[in-house]
Automatic annotation (TrEMBL):
Residue ranges occupied by any SAM-dependent MTase RsmB/NOP-type domain in the UniProt entry: 255-625
Domain of life: Eukaryota
Membership in a protein family: Belongs to the class I-like SAM-binding methyltransferase superfamily. RsmB/NOP family.
Protein name as catalogued: S-adenosyl-L-methionine-dependent methyltransferase
Length: 640
């Protein structure tokens, strides 16, 4: 029977330059929110602090929390039902908490998008441990982001605020507050958080609606409520002007019914904690009835666990129905199961590490692959895990602790390019994982980055361009001008055709989708960014191939761009071959291969977000096939 476990205690990591880094914040699940002693209120700004009792109410309500991540319409309906208390205050508080959390997530997403970093995904922001109403928060964020441009337009056209420049992608607001227009025409007298306002306007126009509980409202809510008729009328005018049925019709074509790709939920069995075989874990999940104290596990999750299957390719990976919420499952909390995508489990298997090996994980945080390698090595051997980002290294340490792999993993805060592979301390390194920073384009749809303003804007522009081109062609046809289909292809179409090298015949439809908004949408800025990343990836790969005793190296990305994948491999292949390595096929039964850009690319592995039930991913394995000529002759000389 699983017992409720405490979260791991803070740990300490080595810092290359400065000794140790205290890892406070690793376990900030509890105690993050101070308690609020004021009156219950529906104010989004003021209702953020919770009493423990109200936390419990929320927790119990998780089971049926609204918030279908993929649905439209009033996302908080069921949350409201489950949290109903006699005077209705708990209902309003829960809604307010979810909305407040959603507003901060929207703010971070928009800021990251405007800076071009795309660092945090909707999922990571809304499913983080400190988020109390995960499903509701996730749903509000998805919906607000989906209608982001429309909501901005409504706010602007309704003249609600004097300036919304802070909300435009490309200019992250320095201050989060914006002045509110004074209805009497005088200077602005109030300020409000634009992201709160966006979420509230979403709720008013497209969600559950707003309910005033009397006093205690925050400024954003007050403003929105005051101008609600104007906002509603503005949206109606926009709908009429565009001749569409509803707000959904205002979305770029195809976006209305698309809210991510439903992948099976994959979990990896961690034998270092599970203490039983994968088959035994499958049996346990199918039959287990969790004790009542595990309130965080819903009936839906219980039922889903009964349908668990083993992945046909990766023996320690289990598959559950899409959307299964395993975050609060006891086996996840105690580290026996690790929430990890199928594709992300490929590199460790591709490495085929043996117990007792010494390995290096070059870009290791947050440590999913490091701990997977540790598990495959049965906790015997050593993994030196590098990451140059101290806060991410802290996450790696926490991951290692949860996975029961701290004794095996030596975490170091260091730029991998600054280490010397010829140093005696690396003389035994046999396995290397290189999973460097990449564009993440393969995870766009699972991360739901397609909801980010920059991508929505780009799609809008492409759609407009496409419509104009179509109009132009129709006009030309009517006026009798001919046009060959080849000439009719746009540069983007041509790029797509050239890049579309795999599974062309059987997978045209999926290929089309998987490229949509990715290769097709690589504008000059994106291309610049991808090339910059590819430059680092190539240098890191060259560097990582220099460990003298290296047997096997796995290079992986969650990108679909050939610049970060096949072209990186091609750039180092000659040097690798001269050093005695060659590409080998880690998964001969896997049908989907690298783009055919050079001989040997058939040994490369690709996964596709629309075809393979996981993220878009790339894996290349270099294995030593013969001794480095120079090394060999040195050794011969030494023997003589
Ligand atoms: C894609 S993530 C790695 C994910 C990790 N392999 C996992 O499975 O959990 C890339 C990581 O590389 C780190 N990184 C980027 N450049 C680096 C460098 N020059 N040296 C070391 N780490 C680096 C980033 O901080 C980031 O944590």
């Amino acid at each position: 029977m699983p017992k409720a476990k405490k979260r791991p205690k803070p740990v300490v990591a080595h810092h290359a330059k400065g000794g140790t880094v205290p890892l406070e914040g690793v376990t900030k699940q509890n105690g993050r929110h101070k308690q609020h002693t004021g009156k219950a209120t529906c104010s989004l700004e003021l209702a953020g602090r919770q009493k423990p009792k109200q936390k419990q109410e929320q927790h119990a309500g998780k089971k049926t929390a609204a918030a279908k991540s993929s649905g439209d319409g009033p996302v908080l309906k069921r949350t409201l039902k489950t949290h109903r208390s006699e005077d209705g205050t708990a209902v309003l508080r829960c809604k307010a908490v979810a909305a407040r959390q959603a507003a901060s997530a929207v703010k971070l997403l928009v800021a990251g998008d405007a800076q071009g970093t795309q660092g945090r995904s909707i999922k990571s922001l809304t499913l983080a441990p400190h988020i109390t109403s995960k499903k509701a928060t996730h749903a509000i964020v998805c919906q607000t982001m989906k209608f982001y441009l429309i909501l901005l337009e409504v706010i602007k056209q309704a003249g609600l605020v004097e300036s919304i420049s802070g909300l435009k992608a490309g200019s992250v607001p320095e201050a989060t507050n914006i002045p509110v227009a004074n209805s009497s025409g005088g200077p602005p007298t109030k300020v409000l958080c634009p992201y709160n306002m966006l979420v509230i306007v979403y709720e008013l126009l497209l969600g559950q609606g707003l309910h005033s509980s009397g006093g205690g409202m925050g400024p954003a809510e007050k403003v929105v409520l005051k101008h609600k008729d104007r906002l509603k009328a503005t949206l109606q005018q926009m709908i009429q002007k565009h001749g569409v049925k509803d707000a959904q019709g205002l979305l770029p074509k195809g976006r209305g019914d698309f809210m991510g790709v439903p992948h099976p939920r994959s979990v990896r069995v961690n034998p270092l904690r599970a203490g039983r075989t994968v088959e035994a874990v499958v049996q346990l999940l199918r039959s287990e009835t969790l004790p009542k104290e595990w309130k965080g596990v819903s009936k839906a999750t219980h039922d889903a666990c009964r349908q668990v299957t083993q992945d046909p390719l990766l023996p320690d990976v289990l598959l559950l129905p899409p959307g299964t919420d395993m975050h609060n499952h006891p086996h996840v909390i105690e580290g026996s199961l690790v929430l990890q995508s199928r594709a992300s489990c490929m590199p460790a298997h591709a490495l085929q590490p043996k117990p007792g090996w010494t390995c290096v994980d070059c870009c290791a945080a947050p440590g999913n692959k490091t701990t997977h390698v540790a598990a495959l090595m049965q906790g015997k051997g050593r993994i030196i895990a590098f990451d140059k980002d101290p806060s991410r290294l802290r996450r790696l340490q926490a991951t290692a602790q949860l996975a029961g792999a701290v004794d095996v993993i030596d975490a170091r805060c260091q730029d991998v390019l600054s280490l010397d592979p010829a140093s005696p301390e690396f003389a035994q390194v046999q396995g290397v994982i290189l999973d460097p920073s990449c564009s993440g384009s393969g995870t766009v749809f699972t991360r739901m980055d397609h909801l980010l303003p920059s991508i929505q804007r780009r799609q809008q522009q492409q759609l407009q361009q496409h419509n104009q081109e179509q109009q132009h062609q129709e006009n030309a046809e009517t006026s009798g001008e001919g046009d060959s289909s080849e000439e009719g292809l746009s540069d983007n179409d041509r790029d797509m055709t050239e890049d579309d090298g795999q599974g062309k015949d059987s997978d045209t439809h999926e290929q089309h989708h998987s490229m949509e908004g990715l290769e097709e949408g690589l504008g000059p800025a994106d291309l610049e960014r991808v090339r910059h990343l590819a430059n680092f990836q190539t240098r890191a790969l060259r560097h990582a191939l220099c460990f003298p005793a290296l047997e096997r190296l796995v290079y992986s990305t969650c990108s679909v761009h050939k610049e970060e994948n096949e072209e990186v491999v091609r750039a180092v292949l000659e040097q690798a071959q001269a050093a005695g390595f060659d590409l080998v096929d880690p998964f001969p039964s896997w049908p989907f291969r690298g783009l055919p850009l050079f001989p040997g690319s058939e040994k490369l592995v690709r996964t596709d977000a629309f075809r393979d039930g996981t993220d878009g991913f790339f894996v290349a394995v270099f294995a030593r096939v013969k001794k480095d000529k120079k090394e060999g002759s040195k050794k011969k000389k030494a023997r003589k």
